[in-house]
Amino acid sequence: MNLYEKTASELSRMLQSREVSAVEVTTSFLERIDQVDPHLKAFITRTAEQALDTAGRIDYFRQQGEQLHPLAGVPVAVKDNISTMDLRTTCASLILKDYIPPFDATVITALKSAGMPILGKTNLDEFAMGSSTENSAFFPTRNPWNLDRVPGGSSGGSAVAVAAGMAPLALGSDTGGSIRQPASLCRVTGLRPTYGRVSRYGLVAFASSLDQIGIISMNALDSALFLNLIAGYDPLDSTSLPGEVPDYTAGLEPGLEKLRVGVIRYGSTEGFDPEVTEMVQKAASLLEKSGANVGEVSLPLTDYGLSAYYLIAPAEASSNLGRYDGVRYGFCAGGDSIEEMFNRTRGKGFGPEVKRRIMIGTYALSAGYYDAYYLKAMKVRTLVRRSYEEAFKKYDLLLGAASPTPAFKLGEKTGDPLQMYLSDVCNITDSLAGVPSLALPGGAHTSGLPLGLQLTAPPLREKLLLQMACFFEKYSEQAPRRPVLDFIEGGSSDEL
Description:
Strand order of the largest sheet: 1-3-2-4-6-5-10-11-9-7-8
Shape: globular
Number of strands: 11
CATH architecture of one domain: Alpha-Beta Complex
Distance between the termini: 34 Å
Largest sheet: 11 strands, mixed
CATH topology of one domain: Amidase signature (AS) enzymes
Helix content: 25-40%
CATH superfamily of one domain: Amidase signature (AS) domain
Structural class: alpha/beta
CATH class of one domain: Alpha Beta
Order of helices and strands: HHEHEHEHEHEEHEHEHHHHEHHEEH
């Protein structure tokens, strides 16, 4: 088996036993990127030289007998809305095409301290606004299970990098499903931690009360290893949660005898593929046969969550994106007056979806409409949070789908924003409530495309999510682990 086919935990063990070197591991992934990324377009920026330099230093330290982090030498891909010092961070937007941050995000500092080679920055929907990675200003990313399909979004590049063996681990961000939905469509594991469990310092802001950095990996153990590294309090993030961080890798074998699982009954199943509903029912039956107490739970505000989210998130975006004015940093189109410069810079620098959300958000916050739209949406959010609190009084865990459908075709929904927004219907209320949620492979559609389950737990119960993901990995029927990529050798990437 090639090294790029190994999981992060397998690579960690092999590196610690000196069965392989960090340079060998990193080289395997870099060669894999060269082979398949021209067809998939997961990466915006590749960092081969820096990755090999880090790997070489790790090998030297290991030879000297130094005590290293378990993930030392395990490569990682990073979503391109996470700040990396001296390495451009574009957010897949023309307005930041050449922006090079002067500082690292807290999670990047953690990666570097652990000695993880960074393979590159991955593609996304511009400023993380989208559900298909088609809104990137540079190029769309393709699903490795079917190149005519989307990988989901906005963390589509990170999901594809892991699914196609171009990285064993990847960082993503999740505002309304941007880790879990692409994880589902690409057959990988995607973890959105509790809001504040992982520092957001250095994450380029979209909607600050919803944004959360998270993990994309091949399995639960890999996610647990990575979460051990990046979770914890950060004084640089005012929303960071204090408190001790548990060892997420310890005791991942779940005991189901007393576990109470609520299967989510969605207010409306219009637009749900019947095979998705069947997948969730099979998962519930498996839990019940294994000793869990399984019931049905209704989250009555699910239908309202989508509307509330698409008022709150754009409102926060309209404020956060006001900093891109052509003066302080990023692209500047010039002009004869400040007003003209602002208009030209934003007109040329922002893409259609970003402009759409800025306009929606600005309207919702404007005088005369604030109470009718934004304030009402915030009240709905409070009710959503309370409905989760009530559900968790009765159940330890909620089970549902990570996406209402398998991956849709490229271009299928770009002309209908509402249909695109409905792709996040399974994920949004978790984000509004700030609770941890995990997407994992749930099986295969008759079309051969992956389907994904979603597990949701009370705040700070990430370990329970990881335990249950381990259970499903062990006992449920699974589709092939990785897609078969029958690409013609050669090919060239789009130049930015």
